[in-house]
Amino acid sequence: MRARVKSIFHRNKFIKGTIANSINFWKYGNDTIQLPDILPSTITPYAFVPGKDEIHFVETPSDYELQGKPFLYNEQFRNAQRVYEVSYDEWFKWLKSQPLPDKPIFVCGIGRSGTTLMARAMYQLNNTTVYDEPDVYVPIIRLPQEEQIPLIQASTASFNQHGTRLVIKHRSFVSYMIESLLKAYPDAKILYMYRNTYDWIISNMRLILRTPWHAGVVHELIRIIFKHFLPALDPSEFRGTHMVESGALLWLRFNEHYTSLVEQGYPVLGIRYEDLVDAPESVMSQVFDFCELPTSQVATALGAFERNSQSGTIFSRQYLADVELNERQKSLIQGMLNRHEWMNDPYMRLPGSVEPRQRELA
Questions:
Q1: How far apart are CA 152 and CA 19, in angstroms?
Q2: Which of 120, 157, 185, 333 could cross-link 98 (Cys pair, CB 3.0–4.6 Å)?
Protein backbone atom coordinates (compact mmCIF):
# COMPACT_ATOMS: atom_id res chain seq x y z
CA MET A 1 0.00 0.00 0.00
CA ARG A 2 1.70 3.17 -1.23
CA ALA A 3 1.47 6.24 0.97
CA ARG A 4 2.79 9.78 1.12
CA VAL A 5 4.48 10.21 4.48
CA LYS A 6 4.55 13.58 6.25
CA SER A 7 5.91 14.69 9.60
CA ILE A 8 3.81 16.70 12.04
CA PHE A 9 5.00 20.08 13.29
CA HIS A 10 1.77 21.44 14.81
CA ARG A 11 -1.50 20.07 16.22
CA ASN A 12 -4.74 21.96 15.71
CA LYS A 13 -7.98 20.99 17.44
CA PHE A 14 -10.43 23.57 18.78
CA ILE A 15 -12.37 21.18 21.06
CA LYS A 16 -10.71 17.98 22.27
CA GLY A 17 -13.78 15.81 21.84
CA THR A 18 -14.65 16.83 18.27
CA ILE A 19 -14.52 14.35 15.39
CA ALA A 20 -11.03 13.68 14.00
CA ASN A 21 -10.26 15.68 10.87
CA SER A 22 -7.40 15.77 8.39
CA ILE A 23 -6.82 19.45 9.26
CA ASN A 24 -5.91 18.53 12.86
CA PHE A 25 -2.25 18.27 11.84
CA TRP A 26 0.03 20.73 10.08
CA LYS A 27 2.53 18.64 8.15
CA TYR A 28 5.61 18.82 5.96
CA GLY A 29 7.34 16.40 3.57
CA ASN A 30 6.10 14.44 0.58
CA ASP A 31 8.07 11.19 0.37
CA THR A 32 6.30 8.11 -0.99
CA ILE A 33 6.78 4.79 0.79
CA GLN A 34 5.32 1.28 0.67
CA LEU A 35 3.50 0.31 3.87
CA PRO A 36 3.79 -3.36 4.91
CA ASP A 37 0.91 -5.73 4.09
CA ILE A 38 0.52 -6.47 7.79
CA LEU A 39 0.12 -3.06 9.36
CA PRO A 40 1.82 -2.63 12.76
CA SER A 41 -0.38 -1.56 15.66
CA THR A 42 1.44 1.80 15.61
CA ILE A 43 -0.16 2.75 12.27
CA THR A 44 -3.92 3.29 12.52
CA PRO A 45 -6.60 5.02 10.41
CA TYR A 46 -7.40 8.53 11.63
CA ALA A 47 -9.58 10.53 9.23
CA PHE A 48 -10.90 10.86 5.69
CA VAL A 49 -10.21 13.94 3.58
CA PRO A 50 -13.42 15.76 2.61
CA GLY A 51 -13.86 15.91 -1.17
CA LYS A 52 -10.99 13.51 -1.85
CA ASP A 53 -10.92 9.71 -2.05
CA GLU A 54 -8.17 9.56 0.55
CA ILE A 55 -7.64 8.14 4.03
CA HIS A 56 -5.04 9.41 6.50
CA PHE A 57 -3.31 7.02 8.88
CA VAL A 58 -1.24 8.23 11.82
CA GLU A 59 1.88 6.65 13.27
CA THR A 60 2.33 6.68 17.04
CA PRO A 61 5.45 5.75 19.07
CA SER A 62 6.32 2.06 19.23
CA ASP A 63 6.53 2.20 23.03
CA TYR A 64 3.02 3.68 23.41
CA GLU A 65 0.03 1.32 23.46
CA LEU A 66 -3.13 2.62 21.82
CA GLN A 67 -5.21 -0.48 22.40
CA GLY A 68 -7.57 -0.52 25.34
CA LYS A 69 -7.25 3.20 26.05
CA PRO A 70 -10.46 5.28 26.07
CA PHE A 71 -11.08 7.63 23.15
CA LEU A 72 -8.66 6.51 20.48
CA TYR A 73 -9.22 9.68 18.43
CA ASN A 74 -7.77 11.75 21.29
CA GLU A 75 -4.85 9.37 21.88
CA GLN A 76 -4.01 9.46 18.18
CA PHE A 77 -4.17 13.26 18.13
CA ARG A 78 -1.92 13.64 21.17
CA ASN A 79 0.69 11.04 20.19
CA ALA A 80 0.88 11.01 16.39
CA GLN A 81 4.35 11.55 14.93
CA ARG A 82 3.70 11.10 11.21
CA VAL A 83 0.75 11.02 8.82
CA TYR A 84 0.42 8.53 5.95
CA GLU A 85 -1.84 9.69 3.12
CA VAL A 86 -3.33 6.79 1.15
CA SER A 87 -5.70 6.85 -1.84
CA TYR A 88 -8.86 4.73 -1.77
CA ASP A 89 -7.53 2.77 -4.77
CA GLU A 90 -4.43 1.75 -2.83
CA TRP A 91 -6.44 1.07 0.32
CA PHE A 92 -9.02 -1.14 -1.41
CA LYS A 93 -6.29 -2.99 -3.30
CA TRP A 94 -4.56 -3.70 0.03
CA LEU A 95 -7.89 -4.85 1.50
CA LYS A 96 -8.13 -7.71 -1.02
CA SER A 97 -4.95 -9.23 0.46
CA GLN A 98 -6.26 -9.17 4.05
CA PRO A 99 -7.98 -12.02 5.91
CA LEU A 100 -11.46 -11.23 7.22
CA PRO A 101 -11.65 -10.44 10.95
CA ASP A 102 -13.30 -13.39 12.71
CA LYS A 103 -16.65 -12.35 14.23
CA PRO A 104 -15.66 -8.76 15.05
CA ILE A 105 -17.43 -7.26 18.06
CA PHE A 106 -18.85 -3.76 17.67
CA VAL A 107 -19.89 -1.96 20.86
CA CYS A 108 -22.52 0.64 20.00
CA GLY A 109 -25.04 2.65 22.01
CA ILE A 110 -26.28 6.10 22.90
CA GLY A 111 -23.07 7.11 24.69
CA ARG A 112 -22.55 7.84 28.39
CA SER A 113 -24.02 4.37 28.99
CA GLY A 114 -21.13 2.10 29.87
CA THR A 115 -19.64 1.58 26.42
CA THR A 116 -16.18 2.57 27.68
CA LEU A 117 -16.56 0.16 30.60
CA MET A 118 -17.51 -2.63 28.18
CA ALA A 119 -14.46 -1.91 26.03
CA ARG A 120 -12.22 -1.95 29.11
CA ALA A 121 -13.75 -5.29 30.17
CA MET A 122 -13.05 -6.81 26.75
CA TYR A 123 -9.48 -5.53 26.91
CA GLN A 124 -8.83 -7.65 30.01
CA LEU A 125 -9.23 -10.82 27.94
CA ASN A 126 -6.55 -12.89 26.29
CA ASN A 127 -6.27 -12.66 22.50
CA THR A 128 -8.40 -9.56 21.98
CA THR A 129 -7.57 -6.36 20.14
CA VAL A 130 -9.65 -3.47 21.49
CA TYR A 131 -9.98 0.03 20.05
CA ASP A 132 -12.17 2.67 21.69
CA GLU A 133 -13.88 5.19 19.39
CA PRO A 134 -11.87 5.35 16.18
CA ASP A 135 -13.34 8.34 14.39
CA VAL A 136 -12.68 7.01 10.91
CA TYR A 137 -16.13 5.36 10.94
CA VAL A 138 -18.14 8.50 11.73
CA PRO A 139 -18.07 10.30 8.32
CA ILE A 140 -19.13 7.04 6.62
CA ILE A 141 -22.60 7.43 8.18
CA ARG A 142 -23.52 10.23 5.75
CA LEU A 143 -22.88 8.08 2.64
CA PRO A 144 -25.31 5.79 0.76
CA GLN A 145 -25.16 2.24 2.08
CA GLU A 146 -23.47 0.82 -1.05
CA GLU A 147 -20.59 3.25 -0.46
CA GLN A 148 -20.47 2.51 3.28
CA ILE A 149 -19.71 -1.20 2.98
CA PRO A 150 -16.19 -1.09 1.40
CA LEU A 151 -15.14 1.74 3.72
CA ILE A 152 -16.34 -0.17 6.80
CA GLN A 153 -14.47 -3.27 5.60
CA ALA A 154 -11.25 -1.37 4.87
CA SER A 155 -11.42 0.56 8.17
CA THR A 156 -12.04 -2.60 10.20
CA ALA A 157 -9.30 -4.56 8.42
CA SER A 158 -6.88 -1.71 9.16
CA PHE A 159 -7.40 -2.24 12.91
CA ASN A 160 -7.37 -6.02 12.76
CA GLN A 161 -4.42 -7.72 14.47
CA HIS A 162 -4.28 -11.21 12.98
CA GLY A 163 -4.93 -14.10 15.36
CA THR A 164 -6.89 -12.02 17.87
CA ARG A 165 -10.58 -11.18 18.32
CA LEU A 166 -11.23 -7.60 17.22
CA VAL A 167 -13.40 -5.37 19.43
CA ILE A 168 -14.28 -1.83 18.33
CA LYS A 169 -16.28 0.51 20.55
CA HIS A 170 -17.99 3.25 18.56
CA ARG A 171 -19.26 6.76 19.11
CA SER A 172 -23.04 7.02 19.46
CA PHE A 173 -23.45 8.19 15.84
CA VAL A 174 -22.43 4.76 14.52
CA SER A 175 -25.54 3.22 16.09
CA TYR A 176 -27.33 4.54 13.00
CA MET A 177 -25.03 2.40 10.82
CA ILE A 178 -25.57 -0.98 12.49
CA GLU A 179 -27.32 -2.35 9.38
CA SER A 180 -24.22 -1.57 7.30
CA LEU A 181 -21.87 -3.05 9.90
CA LEU A 182 -23.79 -6.32 9.63
CA LYS A 183 -23.81 -6.19 5.82
CA ALA A 184 -20.07 -5.65 5.84
CA TYR A 185 -19.55 -8.43 8.40
CA PRO A 186 -22.59 -10.75 8.63
CA ASP A 187 -20.97 -12.69 11.48
CA ALA A 188 -20.28 -9.55 13.53
CA LYS A 189 -21.54 -9.34 17.11
CA ILE A 190 -23.28 -6.02 17.85
CA LEU A 191 -23.84 -4.75 21.39
CA TYR A 192 -26.15 -1.76 21.96
CA MET A 193 -25.86 0.01 25.33
CA TYR A 194 -28.25 2.52 26.90
CA ARG A 195 -29.37 3.79 30.31
CA ASN A 196 -32.35 5.49 31.97
CA THR A 197 -33.35 8.82 30.48
CA TYR A 198 -32.68 10.96 33.56
CA ASP A 199 -29.17 9.71 34.27
CA TRP A 200 -28.28 9.78 30.58
CA ILE A 201 -29.30 13.43 30.31
CA ILE A 202 -27.50 14.32 33.56
CA SER A 203 -24.31 12.64 32.32
CA ASN A 204 -24.43 14.57 29.05
CA MET A 205 -25.22 17.85 30.81
CA ARG A 206 -22.23 17.37 33.11
CA LEU A 207 -20.11 17.10 30.00
CA ILE A 208 -21.73 20.01 28.14
CA LEU A 209 -21.86 22.45 31.05
CA ARG A 210 -18.15 22.18 31.80
CA THR A 211 -17.53 24.28 28.66
CA PRO A 212 -16.96 28.06 29.08
CA TRP A 213 -19.71 28.92 26.58
CA HIS A 214 -23.32 29.84 27.20
CA ALA A 215 -25.64 26.80 27.27
CA GLY A 216 -27.60 28.16 24.30
CA VAL A 217 -24.44 28.27 22.16
CA VAL A 218 -23.59 24.69 23.12
CA HIS A 219 -27.17 23.63 22.38
CA GLU A 220 -26.96 25.07 18.86
CA LEU A 221 -23.52 23.55 18.29
CA ILE A 222 -24.90 20.12 19.18
CA ARG A 223 -27.73 20.61 16.68
CA ILE A 224 -25.18 21.40 13.96
CA ILE A 225 -23.07 18.35 14.78
CA PHE A 226 -26.04 16.00 14.71
CA LYS A 227 -27.32 17.54 11.48
CA HIS A 228 -23.91 16.97 9.88
CA PHE A 229 -23.21 13.44 11.08
CA LEU A 230 -26.74 12.08 11.48
CA PRO A 231 -28.81 13.04 8.44
CA ALA A 232 -31.42 10.51 9.67
CA LEU A 233 -32.33 12.99 12.43
CA ASP A 234 -34.41 16.07 11.67
CA PRO A 235 -32.75 19.03 13.43
CA SER A 236 -35.94 21.08 13.13
CA GLU A 237 -37.49 18.80 15.76
CA PHE A 238 -35.03 20.16 18.29
CA ARG A 239 -35.69 23.85 17.66
CA GLY A 240 -37.56 25.61 20.42
CA THR A 241 -36.93 22.83 22.90
CA HIS A 242 -35.32 23.12 26.31
CA MET A 243 -31.92 21.40 26.59
CA VAL A 244 -33.37 18.54 28.65
CA GLU A 245 -36.21 18.09 26.15
CA SER A 246 -33.66 17.82 23.35
CA GLY A 247 -31.86 15.19 25.41
CA ALA A 248 -35.08 13.22 25.87
CA LEU A 249 -35.80 13.46 22.14
CA LEU A 250 -32.33 12.14 21.29
CA TRP A 251 -32.80 9.32 23.81
CA LEU A 252 -36.04 8.40 22.04
CA ARG A 253 -34.63 8.58 18.52
CA PHE A 254 -31.57 6.42 19.20
CA ASN A 255 -33.53 3.83 21.15
CA GLU A 256 -36.34 3.79 18.57
CA HIS A 257 -33.78 2.96 15.91
CA TYR A 258 -32.32 0.13 17.98
CA THR A 259 -35.80 -1.26 18.73
CA SER A 260 -36.68 -1.14 15.03
CA LEU A 261 -33.59 -3.24 14.25
CA VAL A 262 -34.56 -5.82 16.88
CA GLU A 263 -38.12 -5.99 15.52
CA GLN A 264 -36.73 -6.56 12.01
CA GLY A 265 -34.69 -9.49 13.27
CA TYR A 266 -31.21 -7.95 13.23
CA PRO A 267 -28.95 -9.82 15.70
CA VAL A 268 -28.23 -6.99 18.14
CA LEU A 269 -27.98 -7.46 21.91
CA GLY A 270 -29.25 -4.63 24.11
CA ILE A 271 -27.54 -3.93 27.44
CA ARG A 272 -29.06 -1.57 29.99
CA TYR A 273 -26.35 0.15 32.01
CA GLU A 274 -28.24 -0.27 35.29
CA ASP A 275 -28.36 -4.04 34.75
CA LEU A 276 -24.65 -4.14 33.95
CA VAL A 277 -23.79 -2.31 37.18
CA ASP A 278 -26.29 -4.14 39.42
CA ALA A 279 -25.60 -7.66 38.11
CA PRO A 280 -22.28 -7.56 36.25
CA GLU A 281 -21.52 -11.28 36.38
CA SER A 282 -24.94 -12.29 35.03
CA VAL A 283 -24.97 -9.63 32.31
CA MET A 284 -21.39 -10.24 31.19
CA SER A 285 -21.98 -14.01 31.08
CA GLN A 286 -24.83 -13.44 28.64
CA VAL A 287 -22.74 -10.95 26.65
CA PHE A 288 -19.98 -13.55 26.38
CA ASP A 289 -22.48 -16.19 25.23
CA PHE A 290 -23.79 -13.83 22.56
CA CYS A 291 -20.29 -12.86 21.40
CA GLU A 292 -19.05 -16.46 21.49
CA LEU A 293 -16.32 -15.61 23.97
CA PRO A 294 -15.15 -18.14 26.57
CA THR A 295 -17.31 -17.71 29.67
CA SER A 296 -14.35 -18.93 31.71
CA GLN A 297 -12.91 -15.42 31.21
CA VAL A 298 -15.91 -13.52 32.61
CA ALA A 299 -14.23 -13.14 36.00
CA THR A 300 -11.17 -11.68 34.25
CA ALA A 301 -13.32 -9.15 32.39
CA LEU A 302 -15.00 -8.07 35.62
CA GLY A 303 -11.66 -6.71 36.81
CA ALA A 304 -12.44 -3.61 34.70
CA PHE A 305 -15.35 -2.80 37.03
CA GLU A 306 -13.00 -2.02 39.91
CA ARG A 307 -12.10 1.47 38.65
CA ASN A 308 -13.61 4.40 36.79
CA SER A 309 -13.31 3.43 33.13
CA GLN A 310 -12.76 7.07 32.06
CA SER A 311 -10.27 7.96 34.79
CA GLY A 312 -7.40 10.07 33.49
CA THR A 313 -9.19 10.97 30.25
CA ILE A 314 -10.69 14.22 28.98
CA PHE A 315 -14.08 12.92 30.19
CA SER A 316 -12.96 11.97 33.68
CA ARG A 317 -15.51 12.79 36.39
CA GLN A 318 -13.10 15.25 38.02
CA TYR A 319 -13.41 17.54 34.97
CA LEU A 320 -17.21 17.44 34.70
CA ALA A 321 -19.78 19.89 36.03
CA ASP A 322 -22.05 19.01 38.96
CA VAL A 323 -25.62 18.63 37.73
CA GLU A 324 -28.88 17.74 39.41
CA LEU A 325 -32.25 17.86 37.65
CA ASN A 326 -34.95 19.99 39.25
CA GLU A 327 -38.63 19.08 39.23
CA ARG A 328 -39.41 21.28 36.23
CA GLN A 329 -36.66 19.64 34.18
CA LYS A 330 -37.89 16.18 35.14
CA SER A 331 -41.40 17.21 34.12
CA LEU A 332 -40.16 18.44 30.73
CA ILE A 333 -38.32 15.16 30.15
CA GLN A 334 -41.34 13.07 31.09
CA GLY A 335 -43.53 15.28 28.91
CA MET A 336 -41.33 14.54 25.90
CA LEU A 337 -41.40 10.79 26.62
CA ASN A 338 -45.18 10.87 26.99
CA ARG A 339 -45.46 11.88 23.35
CA HIS A 340 -44.22 8.39 22.41
CA GLU A 341 -46.77 5.61 22.10
CA TRP A 342 -44.99 3.15 24.38
CA MET A 343 -41.39 4.23 25.06
CA ASN A 344 -42.46 6.49 27.90
CA ASP A 345 -40.89 4.83 30.95
CA PRO A 346 -37.47 6.43 31.52
CA TYR A 347 -36.26 3.29 33.31
CA MET A 348 -37.57 0.74 30.83
CA ARG A 349 -35.62 -2.25 29.57
CA LEU A 350 -35.82 -2.20 25.78
CA PRO A 351 -36.80 -5.24 23.68
CA GLY A 352 -33.96 -7.62 22.86
CA SER A 353 -32.00 -6.65 25.98
CA VAL A 354 -30.18 -8.84 28.48
CA GLU A 355 -32.20 -9.60 31.62
CA PRO A 356 -30.13 -10.39 34.74
CA ARG A 357 -30.57 -13.97 35.89
CA GLN A 358 -31.02 -14.99 39.50
CA ARG A 359 -28.01 -16.88 40.78
CA GLU A 360 -29.01 -20.51 41.25
CA LEU A 361 -28.78 -21.82 44.79
CA ALA A 362 -26.43 -24.76 45.37
A1: 17
A2: 157
